[in-house]
Amino acid sequence: MKKIKLILSVILVFLLYNLLVFYLGWNGYAWLDSFKLLTYPSIYIGAVILFSYAYIISHFLKSITIFKILGAYWLAIFEYGILLFPLANLGWLILNQFIPSEDATKIVGSAAAAILLFLLIYGTFNAYSPVIRTYKLAVAKKQAKRDSLRIAMASDMHFGTLSGKSHLNRLVTKINGLQPDLILLPGDIIDDDPIPFLKKNMGEQLKVLQAPLGIYGVLGNHEYYGKMIPTFLEEMNRIGIRILMDEKVTIDETIRLIGRKDKTDQKRLSIPSLLESESNHLPIMMMDHQPDELEAAMNDGIDVILSGHTHRGQMAPNHLITKRVFELDWGYKKKKQLHAIVSSGFGFWGPPIRIGSRSEIVYIEITFKG
């Protein structure tokens, strides 16, 4: 019975998706046809089919990157087309009461196309133009050796095909310019498959990151999706980035740093298990890719928790969903002794588009007080 339900669900999703593709394609066809630009309609129809299935094709033809690029941008066109075209159709119905239908199609279609093009260009700029966000925290000193600590944090880089060498160079330049004491990378360093990262020799660029107290990271859900964690860990170890997998280390007799496996791993340790044998004489900082357990972290005595994963929805209005799913989907929140920071991420998943969010590096200045 479960198998039948699954098959029926897949068929239903497939039919619904194709109906929506047809709806978007029909709107584009009507607009282009109003300008008499469709001399060969079959070319247009073929292009729509190619775009709509390019992302799926890219999973089978991984060496041909054009399919992933087309498919990624199609995801943005698909989402904003679904939001924009019904409004355009309504505008056409109103305008058609006053002017000929062909003229109404030209005006409304051109306006919709201009808005869609603007969103793609503006969103691409936001995705590839990272900003630095600064947070200043005061944490109980306990027995910390240092009076302060400067941390550069970047999550969700998704390095690979679209988040490539140029974007990685931006990360290295900006972080090294901050001259942090410590660099933390809380998950989704690569975009599923590490092969594009390795083929582009991006490890040599990432190796240029500098911090006297070291560079640490954790696994994100996308490292698990790629199913090549040993290969990823080997490369990170080679370039001097230590990935903490339910492990803890002491940083310069100042903080205890805990790195959790991602929530994707059902066998990961609980926070209390990770805190066993802790003497509570140093402040405790934890990297947890998905910001799901802020309440538990607060109750278990964590001082600082750093996360990513949400992308702040990446493309508005998706942020309305992440705000409902997560207690904190972006930014900073204080819960008793706990300082929680969630980054919108440096890279992106799918389309290199950010609307209502921005690629970012987080700079944290911690002052340890009595």
Secondary structure layout:
Blueprint: H1 2-34, H2 41-60, H3 65-95, H4 101-128, E1 131-140, E2 148-153, H5 165-178, E3 182-186, H6 195-199, H7 202-206, E4 215-218, H8 221-225, H9 229-238, E5 242-243, E6 247-251, E7 255-259, H10 271-274, E8 284-287, H11 294-299, E9 304-307, H12 319-325, E10 331-335, E11 338-342, E12 360-369
Helix pairs in contact: 1-3, 1-4, 2-3, 3-4
Give helix % range: 40-55%
Query: Reading side by side through the largest sheet, how are the strands ordered?
Result: 1-12-2-3-4-5
| Molecular shape | elongated
Q: Output the number of helix runs.
A: 12
Structure report:
The chain has 370 residues and is of the alpha/beta class. It contains 12 helices and 12 strands. The chain has helices at residues 2-34, 41-60, 65-95, 101-128, 165-178, 195-199, 202-206, 221-225, 229-238, 271-274, 294-299, 319-325; strands at 131-140, 148-153, 182-186, 215-218, 242-243, 247-251, 255-259, 284-287, 304-307, 331-335, 338-342, 360-369. The strands form 2 sheets. Strands 1-12-2-3-4-5 form a 6-stranded mixed sheet. Strands 6-7-8-9-11-10 form a 6-stranded mixed sheet. Helix 5 (165-178) links the parallel strand 2 (148-153) and strand 3. The longest helix has 33 residues, at 2-34. The radius of gyration is 24 Å and the shape is elongated. The termini are far apart. The mean pLDDT is 95.
